[in-house]
Amino acid sequence: MDERELYLGVKENVLRQMEFDRELSDEEVMDCIEKELSQVDKNRILSFEKRRSNARNMFFSFRKFGVLQELLEDEDVTEIMVNGVQKIFYEKEGELYPYGKHFADREELEDLIQMICAGGNRIVNESSPIVDTRLPDGSRVNIVLSPLSLDGSVISIRKFSKKPMDMQKLLEYQSISREIAEFLEKLVQAGYNIFVSGGTGSGKTTFLNALSQFIPANERVITIEDSAELQLNGILNLVRLETRQAGLEGVVPIDIRDLIRTALRMRPDRLIVGECRGAEAVDLLSANNTGHSGSLGTGHANSAKDMLNRLETMVLMGLEIPITAIRGQILSGIDIIIHLGRLRDKSRKLLEIVELSGICQGEIGLNTLYRFEETGETEGRILGKWVKEGELLHREKWKNAGFGV
Fold first, then answer.
1. Is 382 helix (H, G, I), strand (E, B) or coil?
2. Domain range list for the chain
3. Contacts of 383 (CB under 8 A, 6+ apart)
């Protein structure tokens, strides 16, 4: 009997006992695993360390997240990528590493997928093989089942810190300057509508969490997300809404657009939309244009200018109106775009803050307020500074908040 056969045999025996007695405590389950391992491994195929490792992994597969549990417990790991049964990778400090462990078989991987989906109130199967969900700690999960994924089912987990990111931590990480942090605090308090753009992994959700700390505590805030990821602190009157996918027969899907519309009937002071990907941009802009100042949102883009182009495309997905009308809606609904980026040294930086200044020759004009400028590189780290390029043009909200001229 090889190690894999031994592992599967022990697992089957323990599962049978757990089905017979469903009230076993964690300690009793671990005792059962160790007892079975001792009985089956009479010829000492496994070393003491290997036996302990197998017992731990088996317990995690029953009561937690199996072979991924150690990676989930490691606070320095930011991403976990499962490419089928045999290949697991993780990201730590911006670098990718192969993980030395793997799933015992396809069944173990599929069981984990179903457990994750059930915990997030999602359904994944052959008829719905792609799903977005989250773990209990808020970590974001994307799952693609085989055979869509040719080499086996894929799990991608974006972990979030147990301690929500705040502006002070961004300052410590040199992702932003103190001058800019103080400027953004006033923008949020004054009720400017802010849109955060950036590429994958640039830290948009993290930055949105940090910005939210500047929202006055007495305001009613409603967050709207595909999978709840935001970790807002200090807001007493907070409502968190999450989409629902189609599942069992009779379960009607609820999308971002549905949630924005209903949120407007809930007397919000501010809306926070986790990410705009399509026609929901129409509803967000409409909400921003109807008295909900200080709303926040994010979207994927390569620059602030590119974010404007993407917003135009997203609005066209939901409305067939002239491009001039679309640009008018964007100009009225968004005041500031903050663009984030991940540099080649893996650091995340605020790269640009722009103000939507007005329509010029049919195009939306951008007034660059701050820009990150590289000044050199040392020991693999990029050096740079934030340059102030312009002054805020639209200052009515600024003055109404009592910040002066």
1. strand
2. 1-63, 67-161, 167-400
3. 374, 375, 376, 377
Q: State the alpha helices, DSSP H only, in 289-395.
A: 304-318, 323-333
Give the residue with greater pLDDT, 152 vs 119. 152
What confidence tier does 2 reach under pLDDT thresholds 50, 70, 90?
A: low
Instruction: Assess contact for 220 and 265: CB atoms under 8 A.
Output: no
3-state class of 262 per DSSP?
A: helix
Residue ranges in 103-255 assigned as alpha helix (H): 106-119, 167-172, 178-190, 204-212
* E strands present in 174-307: 194-198, 220-225, 237-242, 270-273, 296-300
The domain defined by 167-400 folds into Rossmann fold (3.40.50)
Is 292 strand, coil or helix? Answer: coil
Determine the CATH number of domain 67-161.
Answer: 3.30.450.370
Encode pLDDT of 76-129 as tens digits.
898 999 999 999 999 998 789 999 888 888 888 998 998 888 887 788 888 889
Report the alpha-carbon angle 279-282-285, nearest 5: 145
SS3 81: strand
- The runs of H, that is alpha helices, within 319-352 are 323-333
For the CA atoms of 104, 110, 113, 114, the dihedral, rounded to the nearest 10 degrees, stands at: -130
**Long-range pairs, 138-141, Cβ under 8 A, ≥24:** 138/228, 138/229, 138/231, 139/72, 140/227, 140/229, 141/116, 141/227
